[in-house]
Amino acid sequence: MGPVWLQALGWGLLAGSALVIGALAGYRLNISQRWIAAITAFGSGVLISALSLDLMEESFRRGGFISSAIGFLVGALIFTAANGVLDRWGAKHRKRSGTQQKSEKDHPGSGLAIAVGALLDGIPESIAIGVSMLQGLGVSLVAVIAIFLANIPEGLSSSSGMKKAGRSPFYIFSVWGAIALISGLASLAGYTLFDRFSPSVIAATTATAAGAILAMLVDTMIPEAFEFAHAFTGLITVTGFLVAFIISKLAL
User: Fold this and answer.
1) Host H or E run for residue 241
2) How far apart are CA 131 and CA 55, in angstroms?
């Protein structure tokens, strides 16, 4: 299997590679916005299941209620603050598949803001993968599978919107390729940097990732899903949650 740090890098790269797969599909295939919305809703349900049944449960087991609660709120606060800044720089609609994304002509600097925003969305998930390996029992396959499944609609929806905003193929695939690589490095960092910390700090870190992921879902993915899936958004999201729940129980 190789050194554990190398495994952490590999699992992060695997989960991140789904962003590139989604980006390729979004750019090359003529997928209707209703289908993109449905896939996004499904991915949102998968991530909600992973953060509630895996990440938060693991955080509570390691550090108890206080560490989990503080970390969860801090993660949401950090994401919300950073996202607010990026919104003003032109990254507000970075996950939208329609014509909401700003072009460089409409909003100079929005290209960089969108890239940074996409990075902000993906880092917490990848860190959580690395942190899950600290207990010495291997990676949380539930987390990896859930993040992989959720990353596909993220890349799909965003790259479709980037294309409609006039972004070049080089820009689109450079962004998602770089984020896939950084996802691997973030997973590696999650394993190596937090190995020396106490269970309470590790618990808070895991919960911080969970809080950031939930804030990201509500701010960026669910609005995309609801605009086109409408009344079916809830049902599709619940289906995604159920699929991830089943996977978590089969993995036990």
Assistant:
1) helix 233-250
2) 10
Cα separation, 55 vs 210, in Å, equals 6
| CA–CA gap between residue 8 and residue 29 (Å, rounded) | 32
How distant is the alpha carbon of residue 50 from its chain centre?
11
Q: What is the pTM of this model?
A: 0.84
* 82 class by beta-carbon count within 10 Å (0-12 exposed, 13-18 middle, 19+ buried): middle
What would the mean pLDDT of 145-171 be, rounded to a whole number?
A: 84
- Helices and strands of the chain, counted as H and E runs: 9, 0
Whether residue 103 is predicted with pLDDT greater than 80 in this model: the reply is: no
Spell out the residues 6+ positions from residue 178 whose beta carbon is closer than 8 angstroms to its own: 115, 119
pLDDT of residue 143: 82
DSSP for 179-237, please give it.
HHHHHHHHHHHHHHHSTTS-HHHHHHHHHHHHHHHHHHIIIIIHHHHHHHHGGGHHHHH
Separation of alpha carbons 155 and 177, rounded Å: 10
- Contact between residue 147 and residue 129 where contact means Cβ atoms under 8 Å apart: yes
pLDDT, residue 195, reads 79
